[in-house]
Design a protein that fits this description.
GO terms for molecular function: phosphorelay sensor kinase activity. Keywords: Kinase, Membrane, Transferase, Transmembrane, Transmembrane helix. This is Histidine kinase. The protein has 368 residues and is of the alpha+beta class. The protein folds into two domains: 165 residues, no CATH class; 159 residues, Heat Shock Protein 90 (2-Layer Sandwich), CATH 3.30.565. It is built from eleven helices and seven strands. The strands form two sheets. It has a five-stranded mixed beta sheet, covered by helices on one side. Helix 9 packs parallel to helix 10. The protein is rod-shaped, with a radius of gyration of 39 Å.
């Protein structure tokens, strides 16, 4: 029963394989062979009641027809290498199966009579068995071959769709990384130039703090520069930069700036975009405490909602408070975009005034 053979091809969808001999061998998978043998056994069992020959002999014939049909079906998927434009390969495979079924049946019966064609034609039982096997194969085989080709094409389409989806996600990730690098490049010079401008002010005014501040700045930059090229570090690393920066600013204006950094230790291991918190701290110094005649105090804190997992990270100052342009600057807009790219669209930056005066900038996000 060569019907098992096309069915075996249908049973295991063929994904894209190498061409030529390698593709042919790859298409003869163990699962296809096992399925072919199983279908040959079922076919022999169904035909056994109408055959005089013993079941083992009948099984041998169905196995022969089934395996040969599977081999030719797989071979037709590779050869000939080139076909006329008007001849689809699936048509060739179906035609090959339809041709193999009767020929394989005739061959197996000729082997049974040692190639004596007249003896085969005179034996009514053998001739009837040949017709039964070949006829059943011709009825079922091409349909099974078409089903196999359909499943193969469907599997290839799904595989290609998954491949395109993977490429799309990789391209989107590369685009996000490129945007993060661009925004990081905008943050770095902004921070460095502002810090150097503070040192220049001390030098120009002849402040005795200029030397210690410059020394602290050098030590700070030595530790900070390797991190400037990183898109993400830990919140603990970011807090190290924040403390170093605030210490520098405290040395520049020791009577006008006080600060405290109180972040729970369990949050320091969270992945966090580099320079994001430092941007808020720098804004608090530059736009809050520095313009105030009395100076001010900066508090850096954080907490996590144990129910929702939402993390709140804030920088609060007691400086001059919110100006008309607060929140509209490039630095804060840049920060909003970076947080959205890093933590998703739910991440946000909220600004609010604190009585009697001052500003609270709060980052809210859910860690991945």
């Amino acid at each position: 029963m060569d019907s098992p053979s096309p069915a075996s091809a249908a049973s295991s969808p063929a994904f894209a394989h190498p061409s030529g001999r390698a593709g042919f061998l790859a298409s003869l998978t163990p699962s296809r062979l096992v399925f072919t043998l199983a279908l040959a056994f079922v076919g022999a069992a169904l035909l056994n009641p109408i055959f005089i020959t013993s079941f083992p002999v009948l099984l041998g014939r169905t196995l022969f027809v089934g395996v040969l049909s599977l081999v030719t079906f797989s071979a037709a998927g590779q050869w000939p290498r080139r076909l006329p434009g008007w001849m689809p390969r699936w048509v060739v495979q179906v035609l090959v199966v339809a041709l193999t079924l009767p020929l394989a049946t005739i061959l197996v019966y000729l082997l049974a009579v040692d190639g004596d064609v007249p003896a085969l034609l005179r034996h009514e039982g053998r001739l009837s068995g040949l017709i039964w096997i070949a006829g059943t194969g011709l009825l079922v085989g091409p349909l099974l071959a078409l089903a196999a080709l359909y499943r193969e094409r469907d599997a290839q389409a799904r595989s290609q769709a998954l491949h395109f989806e993977l490429e799309k996600s990789q391209l989107e990730r590369q685009a996000l990384d490129a945007r993060l690098r661009l925004m990081q490049a905008q943050v770095e010079p902004h921070f460095l130039f502002n810090t150097l401008a503070n040192v220049r002010t001390l030098v120009e005014t002849g402040s005795p703090q200029a030397g210690p501040v410059l020394g602290s700045l050098i030590a700070y930059l030595r530790g900070a520069m390797p991190r400037l090229k990183e898109q993400a570090a830990s919140l603990g690393d970011e807090l190290t930069l924040v403390r170093a920066y605030l210490e520098l600013m405290h040395m520049r204006m020791p009577d006008r700036l006080q600060f405290v950094v109180a972040v729970p230790t369990e949050l320091e291991g969270l992945r966090f975009p580099t320079m994001a918190l430092l941007t808020l701290v720098e804004n608090a110094v530059r736009h809050g405490v520095d313009p105030s005649e009395e100076g001010g105090r900066i508090e850096v804190g954080a907490q996590r909602d144990t129910r929702t997992g939402l993390v709140s990270l804030w920088v609060q100052d007691s400086g001059v408070g919110m100006s008309e342009t607060a929140g509209a600057g490039t630095g804060l807009q840049n920060l909003r975009e970076r947080m959205g790219l890093f933590f998703g669209p739910e991440a946000r930056l909220e600004l609010s005034e604190t009585p009697p005066h001052g500003l609270r900038a709060e980052l809210k996000f859910t860690p991945p």
